[in-house]
Amino acid sequence: MLYCELINIIAYKLNIVEYRVVQSEIAGKPASPALSAYHNGFVTPFKNKTLHREENMENKRIPAAKAAATYIGVVVGAGFATGQEMLQFFVRFGPMGVAGILLATALFILFGFIIMDLGRELKASSHLEIIRYAGGRFLGFFMDLLISFFLFGSLTAMIAGTGALFKEQLNLPSLAGNLVMCAFTALTVMSGIRGVVNSISFVVPLLLISVVGISLYSIAASPPAVFFSYHGGTGGGLLSGWLMSAVVYVSYNIIISASILGPLGMNTGDRKAIKYGAILGGMGLGLASFMIHLALTVNYSEVSRLEVPMIFIAGRISEAVRSIYAVILVCEIYTTAVGSLYGFVSRIGGIKKVDIGEKSLILVSSSVALLASQLGFSNMVKYLYPLVGYGGTVFLLSLIYVKIRKRPFG
User: Distance between CA 81 and CA 75 in Å, rounded?
Assistant: First the structure.
């Protein structure tokens, strides 16, 4: 008898007991005393605890402003904040580069919303759930390889960018910058998604204020004729026109962002917050891009061959401004490095609970990226980014298809 009662209690833990209690009541037979006592005495507290946890989850939802800041922070990394991306993708096309920035802004809003909304619906813990839904099992497999490859490549570029900054601006060995960025990135990722979001959203406002301020000063100090005399720089690399350049620019940035935007959408939860987060994030990226574009345009002859052109422009104001921007720049490089490493490791091994295995994977991935970073920063921006961007256009098209044809969202 006691054995049977224990079996009934175990069955309740496996969610079988509700059925047995209801069936006994329908048949006019009372459930066993022990089973009824367990059901009546412990279900309510259990439900209360569940409701309490759900209320806590609601309170921990990420607001739209923080979602927007995280979106910007993942995109704004070494290439963006140094000005190297603007040189390669927009400035060299002259006035049409501005049209490219406007197009890129609209695409950032569109695809940021789609990915975060998909992350909410699919309860995504990495980019894998999203690309499998958007591209199917066959196409999703190749997109998964592409995204995972570029997440690692982006991490490598961020480490290389820090080395370039240390060498050009601080007169320190580039390897010192590589090691500092590698160490801080690995330590942050070990704290999980909350640590990633908090670290990114804290730095973004500082960068936007500094970029806009330095750009405004540079523009105001330049004669108006400069804007009309510049018609574009030299070609090179893998980009042939402003239109495709804008699409490729968004493509590779969305690829790296998907690994964070998917889980971000799941943790934001509210669709309205996701929409405003995408709009604010996209507009913030567009504004910062436009300001950097103008600042680089009026200084093009001096900065076209520099690895870190925005630091040069900041130095024209004063040495103090240059030093402050250098610190903010390192912080912003760090945010993209964190997003890249988190996305890569969450795909390869998962880091919902950071234990010895996950820590080992984080350390190994960081160490390999440190070795690969010795290839150089500007070469990675010039060749790796466009190459991955071209491949990523397939991902963008599949996201549009999902939005138009499948319509899973309410």
Answer: 10
313-327, 350-364, 391-405: the lowest-pLDDT one: 350-364
Q: Could you give the dihedral angle defined by the CA atoms of residues 192, 366, 331 and 215, in that order, rounded to the nearest 10 degrees?
A: -120
Residue spans of the domains in the chain: they are 63-406
Per-residue pLDDT of 213-238, as tens digits, reads 888 888 888 765 555 555 555 555 56
Identify the CA nearest to 63 among candidates 262, 205, 257, 264: 264
Residue 232: Cβ-neighbour burial (10 angstroms; 0-12, 13-18, 19+)? middle
Cβ–Cβ < 8 Å for 317, 217: yes
Q: Coil, strand or helix: which one is 232?
A: coil
Question: How is domain 63-406 classified at the CATH fold level?
Answer: Amino acid/polyamine transporter I (1.20.1740)
- Surface-to-core class of residue 34, CB atoms within 10 Å of its CB (0-12 exposed, 13-18 middle, 19+ buried): middle
Residues 327/331/276/98 CA torsion (nearest 10 deg): 60
Please measure the distance between the N-terminal and C-terminal CA atoms of the chain and give it in whole angstroms.
51
pTM of the model: 0.71
Per residue in 142-158, pLDDT (tens digit) is 888 888 888 888 888 88
* 124 closest CA partner among 269, 22, 228, 323: 269
Q: How does DSSP classify residue 61?
A: P
Instruction: Tell me if residue 246 falls in helix, strand or coil.
Output: helix
- The per-residue pLDDT for range 312-344, each reduced to its tens digit, is 888 888 888 888 888 888 887 887 788 788 888
What Rg, from alpha-carbon coordinates, does the chain have? Answer: 25
List, in order, residues 6 or more apart from 217 with CB less than 8 Å away.
317
358: helix, strand or coil: helix
